[in-house]
Structures are given as structure tokens and as C-alpha cells.
Amino acid sequence: MPLLEVEGLDVRFALRQGEVQALRDVSFSLERGERLGIVGESGAGKSVAAFALLNLISRPGYIHAGSIRFDNEELTRYSERQWRRARGNRISMIFQDPMMTLNPVLTIGAQMIECLRAHRRISTSEARKLSLARLRQVQIPSPEQRLDQYPHELSGGMRQRIVIAIALLLDPDLIVADEPTTALDVTIQAEIMALLLELCERHNVGLILITHDLGVVSQVTQRMLVMYAGRVIESGPTREIINDPQHPYTQGLINALPQMTPPGQRLNQIRGSMPSLAHIPSGCAFHPRCDFAQLPDGSPRPGCQAQVPPFVDSGNCRVACHMVRQMQQLDLEEATP
């Protein structure tokens, strides 16, 4: 049985000009100890999906439909009291900016001890010992000294390590990391991701890594989802998607990587930009930016502008693209005697 099962998740925001869909029919699963990456441009719906998993969507946002089952329990039916027990205890989250996560007026030790005592019946001295053990685990130098320091006294990389230590304090089954290395330089990014990977493997913790960095996803995750305009458009094993992307959007993301362009030439880019949630294009949301939305003769590809593409299986991946479906049908017709 999967640790996490998300089916048909639909998140909406009730605005004055009308409701907008931030997530549309998002479905995926995660096994215990598995690492899943969610990628896409800004505005694709990655962070909204993460916040929905922990019921952190603020009004006017709300979960309109869908199911989130964690360890065979339906999270969408949880009361606020049940959520307080689950957050940090069974599911932890690492946010983008550690300075927005840590309380600037409390020492690191006070915050870690408060977290432990909110979920466990232990003494302050026991909580301090556990906090020290976690700081050593994330390779914080002089942990006894760091416990009595404030967040502003630490470097960005050290703050992020402390956030990871807090996320692991209560031995959760799942960690959701929302772009955990965005504010760090490249060297520190690599160290943090290597540390997070090692800790998840050691403790058999499931990881959902949300990022726009395909390089990080390829090194850390086993499976990945590609999101566009609030919908999953491709999913499958990370290596398979990176080596042979099927959806034109995924192809564009990979071709935009700097290493895909010869030295001295302009970097590749996907033309246009992510559509506003209030004005999602009809049919396939990606068709205004897609180089394959037209046939070789210049006519529109059937379905691209009129129908939301259904998922089709391609190898071990699932792809929502009219072109892929039509190519599969042509291959089938040619193979039929």
C-alpha cells in the first residue's frame, strides 16, 4: 500500500472576478521511502500542491475536490486538531526561505525543544539532547553553541541545515521540500541536497522535492511529475523522462538547460510564458507555446485547441499530449497488416 495517494486533487481560489483553478485533476502516489520530484515553471502549481498536502492553503483558496490518503487515512477529512498532530510529527515541510521558517526572536534550541514538547511527553533536558543529536546528524559544527544562538547569527546554509534538522526531529514518514535550496549558492545547494538524500535513505523517509531545477531532480529523485498550468502533463521514472521526454513542454525544459547549448550560442528557451490561472487556454493549456500544435502543412493539430488531452502510456511514463497519442495511433496502424 502506498504511503501517499493523491487522486483528482482540485484546488481553487474564490476571487472577486470569479473562481480560478490552481490545481486540476492532480493524481500521483508515493511509496514509503521513495523520492518524488515535482518540476515546472513558476506558476505551474507546484507549491500549491505541496501546501494542499498539509492543509496550509489560506483563504480564499480551498480544496474543491479530490482525495489525499496518507498511510490509508483520508487527510481531507481531518479536523484542525488532527492536523496539528500530523504536521511536523508524521509529515514535515521544508520551505524555500529558512528565515521565514525560523522565529527570529527565539533561539534555535528554544524552537527545537518547543517542537518536540508539542508532540512528545518528554522533559526539556531530554528534548535538548535530541535536538543536539539532530544538529550533529545534519553536520552542524559546534551544535551546543548553535542551540543558544538566534537565526540571524547563522549563515544561510547553516539555517537551512537547522530547518532540515527540525523537519527530522520527530521521525516523520514524509518530508515535503519546497525549493529548499533556492536562496543558497551552488556549492551549498549541492551539500544540502546530498545531506537531504542521505538522511532520507538512512531513515527510510519519503520525500517530495518541489523545484524548477531539473539537474537536482535527476540526481535526487526516483520518479518525477512535470506540471503546467495546474495540471500534471507527464509522470514516470526520472531517468526515463530526462533521457527521453515525451511531452513538448518537458522537451523544452530540458533543452533550456545551459549544458544543452553549444558554447557561444544563445540559450534555448520556450517561447511565451506561463498563462494566468484566470485565463487558461482552451484544450491543451500549452498549445499557444507549443511548436507541435500545428501540422507540417500549417493547419492546427486536431484536438490541441479544443480538447484537454487525456493521459496515454508511453513506456513507463504517462503523458497528456495529443501529438503523442496520434503518433501512437499511426504506429499501431502501420504495424497492423
From TrEMBL:
InterPro entries: AAA+_ATPase, ABC_Ni/Peptide_Import, ABC_transporter-like_ATP-bd, ABC_transporter-like_CS, Oligopep_ABC_C, P-loop_NTPase. Belongs to the ABC transporter superfamily. It is found in: Cell inner membrane. This is ABC-type dipeptide transporter. Gene3D superfamilies: P-loop containing nucleotide triphosphate hydrolases. The lineage of its organism: Bacteria, Pseudomonadati, Pseudomonadota, Gammaproteobacteria, Oceanospirillales. Keywords: ATP-binding, Cell membrane, Membrane, Nucleotide-binding, Transport. The keyword Manganese does not apply. It comes from the Bacteria. One of its GO terms (biological process) is transmembrane transport. Its main location: membrane. Pfam families: ABC_tran (PF00005), oligo_HPY (PF08352). One of its GO terms (cellular component) is plasma membrane. Its EC number is 7.4.2.9. PROSITE patterns: ABC_TRANSPORTER_1, ABC_TRANSPORTER_2. SUPFAM superfamilies: P-loop containing nucleoside triphosphate hydrolases (SSF52540). PANTHER family: DIPEPTIDE TRANSPORT ATP-BINDING PROTEIN DPPD (PTHR43297:SF2), OLIGOPEPTIDE TRANSPORT ATP-BINDING PROTEIN APPD (PTHR43297). It catalyses: a dipeptide(out) + ATP + H2O = a dipeptide(in) + ADP + phosphate + H(+). It is a peripheral membrane protein. GO terms for molecular function: ATP binding; ATP hydrolysis activity. Residues 6-254 form the ABC transporter domain.
